[in-house]
Amino acid sequence: MSNQSLILVLSIIAASLFGTVEALRAKKLIHSHAKTTISKDDFIGCPTNNDFYYNGTINSPFYPYNYPPNDKCYYYITAQPGSVLKFSFSHFDLESCCDFVTIYDGPTVTSKKLIQIGGPGSTVTAPGVYYSTTRNAVMTFESNPTVQKSGFSMQYESVSTASPCNRDIFLIVNALANVGSQANYEKEIKFIANQLTPTWNVGLDKVRVMLNLQTDTDYAIVWSATDIPNNANVTAEVLTMLDYVPDVTADNSTDLECLFRYAYDGLGDSKEFAERYGIEKVVIIFVAANANDYEDYNESFEFAHKIRTEMDAKVIIVGMGAGLDQSSLSKLAYASGFAFFSSSYDNLSSLIPQINNAICSGLNSQCGP
C-alpha cells in the first residue's frame, strides 16, 4: 500500500472515531441499570405528555432505577369535575438535602405551594398524604448533580374533602314581601341557618359560602365568603337576617327577576364572590312566588341562562309555599332534577337530601327540563 493510500485510510478511521466521540458527547444521557452519568440538560426521563387526569400513578424518571442528575420534571394534574386531588406516596427515596418534590395547589407553578418534600427550604423531609383545595395541581421534581437514588412513586386520586362535596355556594335568601308572613320568613331563615348549612363542611378550602339577602327588587345585603369562613359564622350571620328584616310584609316592591339578577351580578363581582379556580359554582335561589307577568318571567329566564353560560354555575331552585307554578319555575333551574318544592314552610327540611345531591351532581348539557 502506498504512503498516500495509508494516510487516506488512517484519516477515514480517525474521522469515524471522532464522529463516534461527538455522537456520544451529543447524547444527553448514558443510562444503565448500574449507573447514570452526568447529563448537561434537564427533562431527562420526564414524560413527553405531562398532563395527568383524575386517578393514576406518577413515577420519577426511570423508576424503580436511579433517577438522572441535574433533572427537572413537570407534571400537570387535574381531578375529575367537582373533585379535588389526593396525593400519597407508595415509595419515596431521594437525596433529602438536595433533591425534592414540590406540589403546587393550583394550575401553575405560581400557585400557592402545597408542600415541598426535601431540598433547600423544604417544608417536610418525608412524604405524607396531601389534598389540593382546587381541581388542579402542578408537581415538580428536581435533582442535583451528585447523589442519585431510586426516586418516588406517587398516587393521585379525585376525591371530595368536604360534605356534601367541595363547592362554592351562593345563597339567594328571599326577604321579599311575597314570602307572605313574618312567620314564613322566620321559618326560611331558621331552615337555612339551623338545618341546611349545618350539613355542609363550611370552610374556605371546603364548602365556600356567600350570602345575598334580597330585601327589595333593587336592594340586597351581601356577605362574602371571607365574611363567613366556617359553619358557626354562617349560622350566626343567617340568623341576623331576622334583625335586618323585622317585618317582611312591609311595603316593598317584589318580582322574580331580581333574585336571578342579583345572583348573576354577585357571581360577576370577584370581590364579593371569591370563588376558587377549578371548583364548581352553585347558586341556590329561594323562591316564594310566581313571576309577576310574562316579562318578569322572561327576564328571570335570561339571567338564569347567563348564570349557566357566562358564569359556569348551576342554579338550584327551592320553591317555598303553596300555589307555585312548578313547571315554569323548574325551567329556571340548571336542568331537570335541580328544582325542589315544599308547599309548607314547615317541611323545608325534607328537601335537604335532594338539595345536597343536586349540589354534588355533575354538570349537565341540558338547559332546563
TrEMBL record:
Record keywords, A-Z: Disulfide bond, Signal
SMART domains: CUB, VWA
Signal peptide from the UniProt entry: 1-23
UniProt keyword DNA damage present: no
Superkingdom in the source lineage: Eukaryota
Family matches, as CDD domains: CUB
VWFA domain span: 168-355
Record-linked InterPro entries: CUB_dom, Sperma_CUB_dom_sf, Spermadhesin-Link_domain, UCP027682_CUB_vWA, VWF_A, vWFA_dom_sf
Annotated disulfide bonds: 46-73
Residue ranges of every copy of the CUB domain listed in the record: 46-159
Any one Pfam family match given in the protein's UniProt record, by short name: CUB
Protein name: CUB domain-containing protein
Organism this protein belongs to: Caenorhabditis briggsae
Higher taxonomy: Eukaryota, Metazoa, Ecdysozoa, Nematoda, Chromadorea
